[in-house]
Design brief:
Length: 353
């Protein structure tokens, strides 16, 4: 599948998720129950696909997108086609990640809220209330940032930020954003609990504990009410990091319009168009395949588009490729096992390709 491989190289994903052990999670409610917080979160995400951002060809108007989340035979939950989907169709848009953050090196060039790149010729709405300049693409994004920004601005982040930047760490910035959102009351502290956590190697713990201490210190020094930061335990930090590690997407915007995407798939690759990282709920339910029938991409901001790469039958599982599908079998197997925690048994791998 050279053409698929080419398309995937274009938007290579740097993400990981374990497909190995999900039996400890109550995924069954996703398909069997109509109540419960987790199911609401999924329904909400699916609803956003129909109403948020660009309208899907297959889900115009109020028709929900052609997907359902339910259990798979082997890999826990997955996303399935609820009706036929045509090659190239936009399956749905996930326009609202739980948490997103620009790359720390791009704060003056990428919208602090929606990850849209500055075009350079528009007025930069930088936030003058803090020492480091941040770019906002619009007043709307600035308005939507108000909650977490107010909390963020009450603390001094220089120790935390420097620590993370020096080590090239990106995920702690997502945790910081999430913690500020929790303190601001815009999300609940357990909002990522529905996602599969990575198993953290004991070697990682001292580093993460150091990050936790710095994060905690920033909030403690901000003199916030004790009750507001009571969620901020080491256990919370590690739990969030474990989920971010294998569910965060590296957001690479491709520019252009949805109609251009098929053309873009075969055009030359921009070396590094990454603008930030984001964690979504519904896109995290897509399982992996080295010969996927769906792909996730971003056009100009954090709105994630799920696109069908070929005709998909009703009931067929939708799968994306977590890695660069152009790699050979051995490299894919190794990366998926060591980075993502599972041994790939997709039909392409089984065929030896
Ligand atoms: Zn924006
Ligand atoms: Zn495979």
């Amino acid at each position: 599948m050279a053409s698929v491989a080419g398309a995937l190289r274009r938007w290579a994903l740097r993400r990981a998720r374990s497909g190995a052990t999900r039996s400890n999670l109550p995924w069954s409610f996703l398909s069997t129950s109509t109540t419960g917080a987790g199911n609401d979160a999924v329904s909400e995400q699916i609803g956003q696909g129909a109403s948020g951002g660009e309208k899907a060809k297959t889900s115009a108007g109020s028709i929900p997108p052609p997907i359902r989340v339910s259990l798979t035979d082997s890999a826990g939950r997955g996303v399935f086609a609820s009706r036929a989907i045509g090659a190239g169709d936009l399956i749905h848009t996930a326009s609202q990640p739980v948490v997103a953050h620009p790359l720390p090196s791009l704060l003056s060039k990428v919208c602090y809220y929606c990850l849209r790149r500055s075009s350079g010729d528009t007025a930069v709405l930088s936030d003058s209330s803090c020492s480091s300049s941040r770019y906002f693409c619009s007043d709307e994004c600035k308005e939507k940032s108000k909650g977490f920004l107010e909390i963020e601005s009450t603390s001094s982040w220089s120790a935390y930020d420097t620590h993370c930047k020096e080590r090239g760490l990106k995920y702690p910035f997502l945790v910081k954003r999430l913690a500020c959102m929790v303190v601001a009351g815009t999300v609940s502290a357990d909002t990522l609990d529905i996602l599969q956590p990575a198993s953290l190697h004991p070697d990682m713990l001292p580093e993460m504990e150091a990050e936790y201490e710095l994060l905690k210190l920033a909030f403690v020094e901000a003199d916030l009410e004790e009750a507001l930061i009571s969620f901020l335990t080491k256990q919370w930090f590690l739990g969030v990091m474990a989920r971010i590690r294998i569910n965060a997407f590296r957001v690479e915007t491709v520019g252009g319009s949805y109609e251009d995407l098929l053309d873009l798939a075969s055009s030359s690759v921009v070396a590094d168009s990454a603008v930030g990282n984001a964690v979504y709920i519904l896109p995290s339910f897509y399982n992996h395949d080295c010969d996927p029938n769906a792909h996730i991409l971003w056009i100009d901001n954090m709105d994630a588009k799920l696109k069908a790469l070929r005709d998909i039958e009703p009931g067929e599982e939708l799968r994306i490729c977590y890695i660069d599908a152009s790699m050979d079998r051995e490299a894919r197997q190794s990366l998926l096992y060591h980075g993502f925690g599972f041994q790939c048994r997709c039909s392409r791998c089984l065929s030896g390709d």
